[in-house]
Every structure is written in C-alpha cells, then in structure tokens.
Design brief:
163 residues, 80% helix
Length: 163
C-alpha cells in the first residue's frame, strides 16, 4: 500500500495542512483572508468526505470504536458552526474575527487530536491495508468533488450547519 492512498495517511496530511492554515490565519504577516478561504474549503471537503466515505466503513470493523466515530461526526458539526461564525465576520483581524478564530482553532484542534488518538489509531491496527487504500481513494475522490462544488463558501457552510 502506498501512503498516497492510505486513508490514515491522507487524513493526517489534511490535518497538518489545516494546522498550517490556522497558523497563517493567526499571523498578521499572512494573507489571512486567503488562508481562511483555503481552510474553509479544506475543512468542509475533508469532513464531508470522512462522513460519507470513511466513518461508516470504519464502524463495520469490530475493533473500531463506533462511539468515537459518531463523536467525530458531532465534532465536525461543532467545527463547521465555529467556521460559519468566523466566515460571517466582515473585518478580517478585528477583535470579533480573532475571538471567533480562536474558537474555531480550539474546536478543530480538539477534534484532530482526538480523531488521531482514537479513530485513526483503531484504523491502523484493525483495518487491512487493502481496505485502507480503497477508503483513501474514495475519500480523495469525494474530497475533490466537494472542493469542485465550492463547499467552503459561506453559503455552502451555512447550508451544512443549518442542515
């Protein structure tokens, strides 16, 4: 199995990219609005792809904690709501923007840490390499589909959050 298709490796790569974008959104030297645009698209595409292509499949493995998988989906909603709150602030770098950015960073960082320690470790230990590769390919395909549909726009995020 190549790392480029291993679902665990693919998800971890996205996680590191999200952390990098969060750092850029905090930096006054960076194009914070551009970083938010990229972060929003990645967070939504990533979460939608996990929920539609990965989480359900992982729940079928007896040693993958189903409650953690369900909790991961709940945390996606929390992160999406925090993202929407930030996207709705018009002045990048304002006190409100910074406060909402920190709420988003806290929600996302908590989720990444928890998912990596539980769901992804369970997948490493209990899901055969071939299945992880299949899941990685399905994840990447769905993520690209979401990105192509402008999933990170404020209207798209609002629709997801409001359900």
């Amino acid at each position: 199995m190549t790392a480029e298709h291993d679902v665990v490796a693919v998800i971890l790569k996205d996680h590191r990219r999200m952390e990098d974008l969060l750092r850029r959104m905090r930096s006054v030297e960076a194009d914070r609005a551009k970083a938010l645009e990229q972060f929003s698209a990645l967070l939504i595409a990533h979460g939608e792809a996990e929920e539609s292509q990965v989480y359900g499949a992982l729940k079928r493995f007896k040693d993958v904690d189903n409650e953690e998988v369900e909790h991961g989906a709940e945390e996606h909603h929390e992160g999406n709501a925090a993202l929407l709150a930030l996207l709705e602030v018009t002045e990048v770098g304002s006190d409100t923007w910074d406060t909402r950015l920190e709420a988003l960073a806290k929600a996302v960082s908590h989720h990444l840490d928890e998912e990596e320690r539980t769901i992804l470790n369970d997948a490493r230990e209990n899901v055969p390499d071939e299945r992880r590769s299949e899941l990685g390919a399905a994840f990447l395909q769905e993520r690209e589909k979401q990105l192509a549909a402008d999933c990170g726009s404020v209207d798209a995020v609002r629709a997801i959050v409001k359900g």
